[in-house]
Model the fold of this input.
Amino acid sequence: MYEESPFCTPPPDEAVLWRYMDFTKFVSVLDKRALFFSAADKFGDPFEGSISKGTAELRSRLHPNIPSNTLQTFAQSLKEARRFTLISCWHENSHESEAMWKLYARETDGIVIKTDFDSLKKSFTCGEGVNIGRVRYVDYESAIIPEDNVLSPFLHKRKSFEHELEVRAIHILHRDDEISKLWDEEIGGAYYEIDLSLLIKEVIVAPFAPDWFIELVKSVAALYGLKVPVIESTLTDSPTWG
Done:
């Protein structure tokens, strides 16, 4: 279930959100009636979950006598936190993004789930608490990333990623049995149950998808009882010349 957090800055309820994915992941969402949250250490960004140089420098000024072994333990804890911090990433935009199609979904057989923030937060039917907030894009040389909570390192990214306009749904595992299961099975994340009828407002098919693929997506959506428009990307619209 969705839980508000003072450490998250959520978008307005009417904000349009997009989840770009390949067809197999789309089928998985329908089949499991759940969203997959990936462990943060699987994202490929070495800065994921880290603090900034600005934060480290501020800490050293405010607390100059912290023993080096304490700092090493803290740094190791930050790195370890990526393994049990699970995240579902969404793109906030009023329109489709050509760049996001290329980055996160194939242009011939990709899928986008379109929703809004109010629908996303209300769609979670799982018992686990899910926090949702916008990502802030900062200069990791000078910016201060708060250290007073476990969410902040995962709600900041480098300015190089600003094009993602990311909104993150986050669940942090706390129970030892949950963490052990995640590590033992090496699945890299976990599924969290959702109400599909609340979450999905439209399904948009990749801009260069063949007709047979569009029909396949419609058939699969109908098979799982998904009663929403399945449409082709507007990036295939024809220009007007006169």
